[in-house]
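Researcher: Re-running this chain for the archive, since the previous output was lost when a drive failed. Same request as before.
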Amino acid sequence: MSTRLRWSDLPETVRGRIEHRLGGEVAWTVPCSGGFSPSTAEVVGADNGRRLFVKAVRAEDNPASVTMNRREAATLARIPSAAPVPAYVDAFEDGDWFVLVTEVGAGATPSLPWDVQDLEHVLEALDVLRSEATPCPVPGLGTASESLAHDFHGFARVDADPPAGLDPWLAEHLPQLVEAERRAIAAVDGETLCHLDLRSDNLLIAPGGGVSVIDWAHACRGAAWLDALLLLGTVDDRDGALGVSGRIDELMDHHGVPRSVATDVLTAFLGFFVDGARRPDPPQVPGLAAHRARYAGWLVPLLRLRRYEHAHHR
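Model: Regenerated structure tokens:
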């Protein structure tokens, strides 16, 4: 995880505009954990009870973070209010700073390993999001196939240059995995607003089960099932207690899409993690390779299970 900026790092003019939105001086701040950006990620509050979430960064901290925060602001400004997403409040430039301000999502990131109820609450919230965000309400967004064009060819890169210590099962099946990711990229498009980066630290769950989907920097137009599938691909279910593979089948059945499509997309998702895990961390994002290796370790047994089931149910 990266080292984040804090409220105290922001210039007085930025703090003043945010305090105007709060209706009072900032009396306390709470930093948010998780993520790979140096941007501030803090809840700031005034004595009047008003709270806001603030994300601010400069190009000198990480140019990519500025670009992503701009994209997120443009998306949040158009997401319907009924969607399970903290409402957009403000976005502005101040000198070298780009600042995004939203309402505060209720709750906290889910505890890991995942709890069954938390996972079900999130999947229900994604159904609401899909309903509210189809057709995509944000003009100008790229398609999922465009957004994933590089990431979803990880196994092609692995096949061309296999890393040392590659899982033997992956090494044995590389030609089939490369073909599967080619099929996957052709299957992910649609007319739904997709988050495209759903994982536990981009979700908040309130005690009553309310869910907020946060961090919208990678939004695109894609298939209605894509976000839920990619989220399930990040869930550690190596013991099968959460029934992730069955939930994936139910998701695809609900949308009238062959279950094998999910397996292809998860193959491409795994290829992204396997390829990325062997690359050095960017200076601004320490721990990224280890994060990707951990997700790959969770996905391999799920993919092996699904490919075995397909082979024996034809």
